[in-house]
Structures are given as C-alpha cells and as structure tokens.
Specification:
Elements lengths: L1 E5 L6 H12 L4 E7 L4 E6 L3 H11 L9 H19 L1
Antiparallel strand pairs: 1-3, 2-3
Length: 88
C-alpha cells in the first residue's frame, strides 16, 4: 500500500536523506520516495500512518499546515546530518 504525506521544510538532498533513512527503519516501511518540488513523501508498505507522522514531526518535517519555529530548527539539524551521512 502506498501512502502520501505532504510535509513542510524539505530544502535539499540532505533533508531527503535524513527522512528516507529514518522512515526506512520503521516497521512496515518497504520503500520511501520523496519529491522535493511538491514536498511529498510516498511510503510503500503497511506502516501505521500515526507512526510516520510522529517520526516526521520529530525530524522537523510536519504535515502541511502544522509547521512551527521549533520544527523548522529541527529540520535544519536533520538536514545537516543528512548531508554528512550522504557524503559517506
């Protein structure tokens, strides 16, 4: 089953790498694809929607309309981590 999430704060490949890495660790997630232009994340598998939304919030990438200064700050941190991890 494919589930789509429209999120905030995806700025670059570092963000996408952090999101993909974190979501692939969740139970039931088979694959993750991210469209930076539309800020859309497609999750294939049978994960709990609530678990995915919570993980995205924790990373700083909330669903559209649920952004805050704290979540923006978290997204910058995870963006930097994703850039460092992507360089390996």
């Amino acid at each position: 089953m494919k589930t789509l999430f429209e999120v905030e704060n995806i700025k670059c490949g570092g963000c996408m790498n952090s999101i993909k890495t974190a979501l692939l660790k969740l139970e039931g997630v088979e694959s993750v694809s991210i469209d930076q232009e539309t800020d859309t994340i497609a999750v294939l598998g049978n994960p709990s929607r609530e678990v995915i939304v919570e993980k995205l919030n924790h990373l700083g990438y909330p669903e559209k309309g649920n952004n805050s200064l704290v979540k923006k700050a978290k997204s910058y941190v995870n963006c930097a981590i994703g850039r460092m991890t992507d360089a390996d």
